[in-house]
């Protein structure tokens, strides 16, 4: 085992096991928990057995293991960008809703309803 | 706070919603021009850091203040919400930078008052666009093509801030996009809700001020990206 494997394998394995443990205890969102656990366990395996990615890549017809890892990283990046964009958008909308609620409440306390319009002056009436 | 005594156009209560962000140099002029026409004015100060709110505060104007800046789409929805709560029958949206002509409002409102339409959309390409830079013209034409691709509405002007809604249309349309992409969202809502709409020729006068404050040509790409991403979210 290389020094790199000695350092990173226990870390990846520990995080993966912790993630699995939290998932089993119901402390995590199920889908996200499963994904995180699989990710860290896969990372631990590929650190321990570097040829594993090449083996899988060959079976998938990709070729080199590094290409497989690159593709997976690209997919993970896209997924996380989309996930965080969605999350930020949702948070921004909550901030807007809050700002609006405050603004509307203050305005309605301050201003009375528009007064009834006097009998017909000019121009068309509203069609019901 | 008082309201203008006689709203125009018969017995309908017509509210003009004006979203404003850092518009202190021009807001008084815009309100002066609208005020003499007797409409109910709702100014939404969108967290301005200048004297916009102070200058908009006057008798006959409902001043609504966002505690922080949230964008023109957010300000419009806030103004529409307030106008509906105060009993408006027709709601007109009007930009605060002075590029719209209040004289266009009666033509915009008339088809709604007669029940022909739920929404009217101002079009500078069916009307007039004074001093419009070439870059802006190209961007707006591209926006029209984009809208044709992404929604079923065949409009000639997609990002004109001058438009009018019947009360029921305003109640049904929800603007959730805080920034400038709200204009595209409104068109998509009109399409999705199957509202009856019509374009009305209007005049847009570009000034040095409105050009400096308005959207840059590059904003068109950002808005298109926002619209596409929003479609993915749904």
Characterise the protein shown here.
The complex is a heterodimer of chains A (128) and B (234). Chain A is 76% helix and 0% strand. Chain A is built from four helices and no strands. Chain A has helices at residues 3-24, 30-48, 51-60, 65-110. The longest helix of chain A is centred in the C-terminal third of the chain and has 46 residues, at 65-110. The model of chain A is unreliable at 119-124 (pLDDT under 50). Chain B is α/β, with parallel strands linked by helices. Helices cover 41% and strands 21% of the residues of chain B. Chain B has nine helices and seven strands, in the order E-H-E-H-E-H-E-H-E-H-E-H-H-E-H-H. In chain B, strands 3-2-1-4-6-5-7 form a seven-stranded mixed sheet, with helices on both faces. Classes of the chains: A mainly alpha (128), B alpha/beta (234). At the A-B interface, helix 4 of A face strand 3, helix 3, helix 4 and helix 9 of B.
Q: Tell me the β content of chain A.
A: under 5%
Which shape of chain B, going by the Cα principal axes? globular
Largest sheet of chain B: 7 strands, mixed
Largest sheet of chain A: none
- Shape-level CATH architecture of the domain at 14-132 and 159-176 and 193-213 in chain B: Alpha-Beta Complex
Count the strands of chain A? 0
> Could you name the CATH class of the domain at 14-132 and 159-176 and 193-213 in chain B?
Alpha Beta
SS field, number of helical segments of chain B: 9
Question: What is the overall number of helices of chain A?
Answer: 4
Shape of chain A: elongated
Intertermini distance of chain A: 82 Å
Compute the CA-based radius of gyration of chain B.
16 Å
Mean pLDDT of chain B: 88
Q: What amount of the residues of chain B lies in strands?
A: 15-25%
